[in-house]
């Protein structure tokens, strides 16, 4: 297969990227959501233990937000990748913050977006474990049925309205 | 990513969306072992039972669980009633029963009952609850004989329950081999062998040995969470590509013989976006011989451990996590689905390029030949159909095969694909073979 020969270049420069204009997804009313809008959606989330926003604490940063367009003209699924930077490397609340960001984006974005929230590499002592949890749909779904945890997240998101 | 299919020999066509759908995420669907029904586990704490004849909702199983129902499984081989097991994020499993003796009459007499009819006998009756897991149940499955029920959970354990008599379940094993959440359990179709797949990226196999269930194999290969595990059906060599036995080269005939001795294979899928096929290394003949001598297992001289090796990786077509695969018991086709919303169909065939290697004829050294064929597989898996956006922009959580039972059925053995999605919908698809 040729897959291995293809350089892993940035999708933004892919000349075949034009899925938004493809005819079969026009009812999607694709509203050209950009990184800035994603940033605006999540920067106002409150930190669970400081009275400050994730934006002002530089937990979320515009350069760490990436939108990956659909990988095929037959698909309308885009991926939003957000890398968060926990305030300290042992921050036990990294998972909760990540969950808050994921919940915020899943609620605010149309369902054609897949939301991948990760801890920025090297900024957290257990980033791999945290990332795996945040990427596990089943664990996230179960966490959202947990009343205590949802209470914390609701409080974090209360400043977003 | 969009290179043409190697052999697009089927199209996947929509047949029906089961109605009415759930308004929230549906996780998994299980076709009834004998009746034209499918049960769907829903995040709204209910199980919906749909007819595969009319594609409409016939029952809602409610009130048993406090959180999402994640998994459902019908007990096989039950006469006169349907027995359904449900597993939930509330850490419990429920057993439900419905008398089916009047079902034939109901259908022929067209006895219509409203959905909200309070007729007690008509509903699934809560029968008992299986408590023991510490956290969310992720999957449960009845063994083919119906003797055992396996459950697995985020608490890293796999439990095996045995039904001693109606509504009296005993825990026969608590297996704690995995280091992380156990995502899926599945039974071997012929032997009492259980497989489990986990967040710890491994698959484990278990078997009863002298009254104790023990791990007999650990399968390493995936490098992300393994989401689903399923055995191949029984006797597939007479149903899939292997059924055509004329003019086989000696090499191929030998391979078939090896496959036969291995027994049903295992398929797994993962967050690493691969689907892998695993095969048991056939044991030496004399071990089988000693197995048949009736020597009590306690003094059996040979090891119960089994050697399972990775036989193949299917062509990679998914862009994101693959949540589910299903191996057809009729045709040997494999179907997969996942986060990218695609449904992909795979078929096994003889490898088109026959290796040039010359094999010794009639070599007495059979085991070495076995090694040889493991290194150079004689068969290959190809993608034969690809469907985008099966549930619109939503993720597909589960996919499985079921017997077709609506009036459009084209032949007795026709199968449908049932897909279950984040949009709350359960969809039914047919396969149309392309004439080339």
From TrEMBL, chain B:
Keywords for this protein: Repeat, WD repeat
Please name the SMART domains in this protein's record: WD40
Q: Which residues form a coiled coil?
A: none
- Tell me the GO BP annotations in alphabetical order: iron-sulfur cluster assembly
Specify the superkingdom.
Eukaryota
> What PROSITE patterns does this protein's entry cite?
WD_REPEATS_2 (PS50082), WD_REPEATS_REGION (PS50294)
Q: What does this protein do?
A: Essential component of the cytosolic iron-sulfur (Fe/S) protein assembly machinery. Required for the maturation of extramitochondrial Fe/S proteins.
Protein name in UniProt: Probable cytosolic iron-sulfur protein assembly protein 1
Q: Which organism is it from?
A: Lojkania enalia
């Amino acid at each position: 297969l040729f897959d291995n020969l293809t350089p892993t270049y940035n999708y933004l420069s892919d000349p075949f990227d034009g899925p938004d204009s493809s005819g079969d997804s026009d009812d999607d009313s694709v509203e050209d959501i950009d990184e800035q809008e994603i940033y605006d959606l999540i920067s106002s989330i409150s930190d669970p233990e400081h009275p400050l926003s994730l934006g002002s604490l530089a937990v979320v940063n515009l350069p760490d937000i990436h939108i990956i367009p659909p990988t095929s003209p037959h698909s309308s699924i885009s991926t939003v990748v957000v890398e968060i930077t926990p305030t300290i490397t042992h921050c036990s609340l990294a998972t909760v913050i990540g969950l808050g960001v994921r919940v915020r984006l899943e609620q605010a974005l149309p369902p054609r977006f897949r939301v991948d929230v990760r801890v920025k590499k090297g900024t957290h002592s257990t980033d791999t474990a945290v990332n795996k949890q945040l990427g596990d749909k089943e664990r996230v779904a179960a966490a959202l049925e947990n009343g205590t945890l949802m209470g914390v997240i609701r409080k974090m998101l209360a400043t977003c309205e | 990513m969009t290179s043409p299919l190697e052999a697009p020999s089927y199209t996947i066509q929509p047949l029906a969306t089961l109605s009415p759908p759930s308004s929230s995420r549906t996780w998994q669907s299980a076709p009834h072992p004998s009746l034209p029904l499918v049960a769907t586990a829903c995040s709204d704490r209910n199980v919906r039972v749909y007819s595969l004849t009319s594609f409409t909702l016939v029952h809602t199983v409610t009130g048993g669980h406090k959180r999402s129902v994640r998994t459902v499984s019908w007990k096989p081989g039950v006469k006169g009633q349907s027995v359904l097991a449900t597993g939930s994020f509330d850490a419990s499993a429920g057993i439900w029963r419905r008398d089916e003796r009047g079902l034939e009459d109901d259908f022929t007499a067209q006895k219509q009952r409203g959905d909200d009819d309070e007729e007690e006998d008509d509903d699934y009756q809560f029968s008992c609850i299986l408590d023991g897991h510490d956290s969310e149940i992720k999957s449960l499955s009845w063994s083919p004989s119906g003797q055992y029920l396996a459950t697995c959970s985020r608490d890293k354990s796999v439990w095996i329950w045995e039904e001693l008599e109606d509504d009296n379940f005993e825990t026969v094993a608590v297996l704690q081999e995995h280091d992380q959440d156990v995502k899926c359990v599945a039974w071997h179709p012929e032997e009492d062998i259980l497989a489990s797949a986990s967040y710890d990226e491994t698959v484990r196999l278990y078997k009863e040995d002298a009254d104790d269930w023990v791990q007999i194999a650990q399968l390493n290969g995936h490098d992300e969470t393994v989401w689903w595990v399923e055995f191949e059906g029984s006797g597939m060599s007479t149903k899939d590509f292997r059924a055509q036995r004329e003019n086989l080269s000696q090499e191929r005939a030998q391979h078939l013989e090896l496959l036969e001795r291995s027994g049903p294979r295992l398929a797994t899928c993962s967050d690493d976006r691969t689907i892998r096929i695993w095969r048991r290394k056939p044991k030496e003949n004399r071990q089988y011989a000693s197995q048949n001598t009736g020597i009590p297992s306690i003094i059996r001289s040979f090891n119960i451990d089994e050697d399972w090796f990775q036989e193949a990786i299917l062509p990679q077509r998914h862009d994101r996590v693959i949540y589910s695969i299903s191996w057809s018991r009729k045709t040997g086709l494999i179907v997969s689905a996942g986060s990218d919303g695609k449904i992909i169909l795979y078929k096994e065939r003889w490898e088109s390029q026959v290796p040039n290697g010359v094999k010794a004829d009639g070599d007495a050294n059979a085991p070495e030949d076995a090694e040889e064929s493991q290194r150079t597989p004689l068969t290959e898996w190809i993608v034969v159909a690809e469907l985008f956006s099966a549930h619109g922009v939503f993720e597909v959580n589960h996919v499985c095969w079921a017997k077709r039972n609506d009036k459009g059925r084209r032949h007795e053995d026709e199968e449908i694909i049932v897909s279950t999605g984040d949009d709350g919908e359960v969809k039914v698809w047919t396969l149309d073979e392309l004439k080339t």
